[in-house]
Design goal:
This protein has 98 residues and is an all-alpha fold. The protein has one domain (1-76). Helix content is 53%, strand content 0%. The chain contains 5 helices and no strands.
Amino acid sequence: MNAPTPFDPKGLMKDAFEIEGITAAECRSIFLDWVLGVPAGADVRAEVKVIVAHYASLADADHPMLATLTAAQEDSGPPRRKGGRQSRISQRTDDTSF
């Protein structure tokens, strides 16, 4: 069993960096498991920065978990509405063919 750390209490990140031949998809899955364990209200980006700082020097620069963690730090922009009732109603009022 992995020794718990404040930034990785379940040892998920440690395990991910130790798995030989781990894929990017597996890293994303492990990251999701880790993120679900982050306490509500915690700054996930700050937590990710700590993990990157810890493992960046211990892992290969092209490790897929480092790529996953780097992507997690990027700004995803403001949330966008992708559809729903409001979108359908506004299309109906613009359509004069009915």
